[in-house]
Amino acid sequence: SAGFPDKPVDPSTIRGLDQIDDDLTLPLSERYFLGGLGEFQLRGYRGRSVGPRRPVLYRSVLGENLYLPVGMLPITVNSDTGELVPASDPDAIWTTVCDDEPGSLTGGNQNGVCNTYSKNNDLDETDVIGGNKFISTSFEYRFPISETLGLQGVLFFDAGNAFVEGDSLFDPSDWRYGTGVGVQWFSPFGPLAVVLGFPLDRESEVEDSPVFEFSVGGRDF
Asked: How far is Cα of residue 86 from the mean position of the Cα atoms in its chain?
C-alpha cells in the first residue's frame, strides 16, 4: 500500500523501481545501444540513441519508492466501479490519469497524449535505456574517388535494433533502418571519415534527420 494516504495502488499504473524495467537483466553499463559509427553501428541515427525506450519518471508523493511516467497524475477511483472518488473513500484505490496541463508539476501534455509504462505515446518524454541483446547488419558499395589523394566513397544501408529479454531479434518489422553516403580519406595521420546518414523510419522530432558524423582513426565509416 502507499504511504500518502494509506490506500492501495494499481500496479499497472503506479510502480516501484523494482517493478520497472524488470525485463532488462543486464545492468545499465552493460546494455546495448545502437546508433552512429563504431562497434554498434547504425548510421543515420545519433550514437547510443536506438534501443528500448522507457518514459521519463518522477517520484510520486504516494510513497518513497513509487514512480510515475512524466505527465501522469495520481487520482483515486472506486476499486469496483472505477469512478472518481475522494481519497477518504473506504473503497478507493490510487491509479493515474493523463494530465493535460503542460505547466504542471507532473509535466502534463497539452494534447492529452501521455506515456504509460508499456506504451510510449510521446517519444519526447522518453529515455533510451538499452537492451539485453542486439542485431545489426550493413550493406555497402565502396568506390574510389581519387587513388592519388587516398579518397574513397561509400553508399550504405544499415539495419538493426536492441531488444529486451523475450523479444525476438529476427522480426525485420522491429528493426530500425538508415541509409546515406560517406567519404573517407586515408591521410598520413590515419583514416578520416565523414558520413551523412538518413533514418528511414524516423520517430517524431525526437530523432534528427539528416545526421552528420565525423570519425578520426579507428574503424572506417
From this structure: 36
Structural domain that includes position 209: 133-216
3-state helix/strand/coil string of 182-202: EEEEEECCEEEEEEEEEECCC
For residue 162, give the H/E element and its range: strand 151-163
Helix (H, G, I), strand (E, B) or coil at 204: helix
Do 162 and 203 lie in a common domain? Answer: yes
Q: What average pLDDT does the segment 57-61 reach?
A: 87
Instruction: Please check whether residues 201 and 142 belong to one and the same domain.
Output: yes
Of 112, 26, 17, 121, give the one whose Cα is nearest residue 68: 17
Q: Is the dihedral of CA 203, 204, 206, 208 positive or negative?
A: positive
Give tens-digit pLDDT for 129-151: 999 999 999 999 999 999 999 99
Give whole-number Cα distances, 176 to 20, 34, 104, 128, 196, in Å.
24, 10, 34, 14, 17
Residue with grid cell 487520482, as numbered in its chain: 75
pLDDT in tens, 8-41: 888 888 998 888 888 888 988 899 999 999 889 9
